[in-house]
Amino acid sequence: MKRAQDKKGVQVQSRLGRPQTTRPISLGTTNAAISFVQSVAQASRGDKGLYHEFDGALRAYKAGSITISETVAKMVAIFFGHPDLLLGFNAFLPKGYNSIIKSVAKELDFSQAYSFVQRIKVQDEALFKTLMDIVINHYRGNTSTTEDFRNKVADLWKNHSALVEEFVCFFPEDLFNSLNPNENARERRTYMDTPISKLDLSQCNKCSPSYRRLPPNYPFPSVASRTPLARAVLNDKWVLGRISEDSYYGNPRPTNKYEKAIQKCDDDRYELDMLIETATYTLEGLERLSDAIQKQGEVIVDDYLTAIQLRHIERIYGEHGLEALDSLHGDPRSTVPILLVRVRQKSDEWLALKETSIRLWADAVAKNYEKSRIIPKK
Asked: pLDDT tens digit string along 224-271?
């Protein structure tokens, strides 16, 4: 697996080296290229899906399924929230595309724009591609006037009124006044920066002494793949509000050391259960992948393993997790049997630990329960 990591820079160069009418994107084999790929891998420790999306975009470019423009659009979306990576990638772009990255990096609010763009990409891939084409063409100077840019954006958002208010927040205030005359976007942005626990819900509708409806302009979460039944019964708009200044919500009562001991047992039990369940889920995916390799020979790992399963493999290998994933993608036939043994070994260890811990948890709860009910004075 170490060898796979050492060749990372060369592998990326080969993924991008597809000939086109313009000079292709090329990281080359320089120290700068290797350093950039290592920076992406390092950032993936805090954003587990980032490296896989980056790698997937490069693979798609190599296969010829996307153009340079589409690759740039994907990188803009992938590296939103990571301006250093976005500007680092800029150095390897063909002439004419560099200014796009610089302009986007300079003008967009990364933290909120990243969430916005990712949500659009999940909801509607076609809408996402059209939006990125409009923005990229504008920053390349292909849009004749600012008015033309505004008109294209207005047409795009014609049937997406909830999204336009969020979109205009990421540009100068006077650019999209005609699209947002009623200040809704500014209100929504204020709500985005304020935790629900800090909102004043005293004037909002209520359905019980404790539940309040969020304000109309509050940016409700957008969830992909919800069924009509789920949309009908799941709640996004009603939240638990404070009944009074001394209510539990917003002012949780202090806990004593006995209650904390019980809470720690619950936390440990939950963490261990999650590890065991995820290990079982990962083993199922690895077994499907192993069967596919035996039948088909060449396979695409991401068609058989989800992001959760890949994260679990990375977690098991700790600081060598990225090396394990690189080896898995580069040589699945040799790597999958090793991963199966390791994941199964960890699963057995966690099951044995749970069996031992159940008795310890039961003793701790029995010992601390009565004293945990004593509420300390403020």
From this structure: 556 778 777 887 778 876 655 544 444 455 578 888 888 889 999 999
Angle between helices 98-107 and 125-140 (to 10 degrees): 100
Residue 362 CB neighbour total at 10 angstroms: 11
Please count the other Cβ atoms lying within 10 Å of the Cβ belonging to residue 62.
16
Alpha-carbon distance values, 77 to 16, 44, 62, 248, 296 (Å): 18, 15, 19, 40, 33
Q: What are phi and psi of 202, to 5 degrees?
A: -65, -30
Question: Which of 342 and 115 is assigned the larger pLDDT?
Answer: 342
Helix (H, G, I), strand (E, B) or coil at 239: strand
User: What pLDDT score was predicted for residue 182?
Assistant: 46
- CB neighbours (10 Å) of residue 170? 20
Question: Tokens representing 179?
Answer: 């699209």
- Residue 9: in which H helix or E strand, if any? helix 8-16
Q: Residue holding tokens 């069924």?
A: 227
Angle between helices 307-317 and 48-63 (to 10 degrees): 120
Task: Give yes or no for residue 336 having a pLDDT over 70.
Answer: yes
Question: Taking all residues of the chain, what is their mean pLDDT, rounded to a whole number?
Answer: 72
Nearest alpha carbon to residue 167 among 128, 122, 224: 128
* pTM listed for this prediction: 0.41
